[in-house]
Amino acid sequence: MLTVNTPAPNFSLADQIGKTHTLADYLGKWLVLYFYPKDMTPGCTIEACNFRDNMARVHGVGAEVLGVSADSVKRHAKFAEREKLNFPVLSDESHAALEAYGVWQQKSMMGKKYMGIVRTTVLIDPKGVIRKVYDDVKVNGHVDGVVADLAELQNE
Known about the structure:
By secondary structure, this protein is an alpha/beta fold. 30% of the residues lie in helices and 28% in strands. Strand 6 (104-109) and strand 7 (112-117) form a beta hairpin.
């Protein structure tokens, strides 16, 4: 499990155009790192589009956004193009970052247990320290909370 005020786990993941992103690339900036189950599904599309539509607000509080799922770079490319995403979505097919961040967990649907991504968002400060964790995120209104919390954290 992630703990506030501890260093964020490093990652090195390719985005929808094949560019590699690492935690070190974002040092000096606030980072919204959100983990989602699957491209092109209803909840994940709403969440991605909410970040897309509110990117000016996110940038306004000095933050960058990265989405992460276990989908392939190719699937991310299709998703990003279809939804006109204006931020990177990272592919973690090996589950290395998903496991490091504790979001790859046993889930249950209709009595069937399986492993999957628990929708989670992590706010990471410019020094690479976890400042807030949102567990089991509900997509509606989530971006509003993220922007408000980023503004508040920066005023501490």
